[in-house]
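re: ur question from yesterday

yeah so i grabbed the chain u mentioned. its 139 aa long if i counted rite. heres the sequnce exactly as i have it in my notes:
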Amino acid sequence: MSKPGPIILIEDDEDDLEIIDEIIKKLGIPNELKFFTDGKQALEFLRTTTVQPFLILSDVNMPLMGGFELRKIINDDEELRSKSVPFVFLTTSADPAAIREAYKMNVQGFFVKGSNLDGISRIMKMLYEYWQECRHPNN
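ran it thru and got these structure tokens back, copy pasting raw so excuse formatting
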């Protein structure tokens, strides 16, 4: 994880992309936001970039490759896993089975977007501040 590195946002809902982008700007978070509409695009970026991402925020259900499949691939790939990029689910559903499955995959968080800007804003602020302070093997 690189504290100045980009925040990877994997989300297939255009409205949610715009809302999160707006919130990050309002919070004054300086990290570049990289958008991907499915896990397959994000995986391609993660495999080819020389940049160390700060954080991965992923929806669960997306076309082509969902968040669970992406997380499994990252866990199974020694090079990607060794980058130790925090992986957090940010989704619309809090299904207990999905939450259990996520934590079996060693995610660093599972959050529900909710329906209001204040809730998403609190989540984004808390995640950013936490990972800025957290000690990490790659920095």
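noticed a couple things. The mean pLDDT is 92. also The chain is about 45% helix and 15% strand.
anyway ttyl
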